[in-house]
Amino acid sequence: MMVKTKSFNFKKKEFLKKILFSSSFLFSSVFFVAAGCATQTVDKNPGNGDRKTPGTTTNLAKSWDTKVNLGLGQSWFDAKSKDPNRVTKFTENLKAEFDKLKNANPETKDLPDVNFDFVGIDDSKTKISQLKSSDNSDNAIDFAIVDATTTIEDDREKELYNGLQTLTWAFKNTADKPTFYQDGTESDPLRKSAKELSDLFNKNPYNEWSSKNNDPQKWDGIAYRFLYDESNPRRIISYYRGMIMISGDDKTRQEIKKAWNEKDWEKFRNFGIIHGKLTSAGKFKMQNFIIKKHFGDKFKAKSLNEDRTNHTEKYLQGDGFTIGQDPKYKIAFDDEASFAWTENKKDGKQYHSTENNGKVEILMVTNPASYDVGSFRPTFNKTQADMISEAFVNLAKNGKDAYGPNVGYNGYRKIDQTDPEFRKIYAESN
């Protein structure tokens, strides 16, 4: 395999220019070509050391980035945070935490300062693609946070360095440890969890949830906190799930449940399914896994997408909260408890059945997937990557994370490179 040796980008490597370009341009050019061919072999196993020759401060300096571009989701950040300076506050706080770590490390304290730029990218596949093809130029991203499923499936060769695990508050129906599909019956822990969440959701109709201070279903600007675990301190977990909702009157919902219990896929699917983008983990992929597992040989297609292609009239790509609006679609896929962070507009068009005596229920939650994972481009220096990951961890611990809580990240931890939990959960869930 031929490894491409990239030119040094001086906008991001000013320190290297200062310490190495002391000789003539001709000599330096020859030196770098030789050094590049000799040392810059990319390590395809992200658990093994630095991406470039590890060991000396000089080698660390060669691959030290002075500008780190962060590919992060922007739409939810913009929607949830009303602070016009939210991006600047986040990047400055992250830099402050990083500087503490850098200056406390004898190997890095004399290296140049590092600045962070926020690059708004919402699409998971785009982020992984850009990371893998990053040339470390001034506009290329160096780091991105992406759902774990896409991180694994779009980086089969494990080129990226997965450094950061995001964490989120547990819901009241969430177990301390990940539980998995057993048989899909009412005694299945996933079915029980869905029932608990459904009862909580329907205790008062969603359309009546408000922002009044004394309302038990109070909206606080980011979420309806009554749905979350109330332990002190709050439980935070490293995984999430998708859910399968159903709508209709009592008779219709019972028929849907009967089709599920009897594993009659044709009948179940023919109630009509609303789903998210095909690339969405919590709104399509995770439901694909659980449906194939539950219906077994009654599910004839190779995948849910193939079944969708063969029966287009029974599928609708759209928002899960629209369930109950179109009588042709009685089933919807969404992230578990998506109504927790969706503010009620009081227009009767969110999580609401328009049928007489109609109701929305949560039938099933899916197997878990690890919460989003922060990854670095293949040639990013591992020492610097670990410091950035630790800076995120400290940012949350110190209550200075201006980004995470707005997009559902309530904490972080560094990923164990010897046995990454997110890969184990993926393997067992599928």
TrEMBL record:
Pfam families, per database record: CypI
Domain of life per record: Bacteria
UniProtKB keywords: Signal, Transport
Signal peptide interval: 1-34
Reported function: Part of a high-affinity transport system.
Xref: NCBIfam families: MG289_thiam_LP
Protein name: High affinity transport system protein
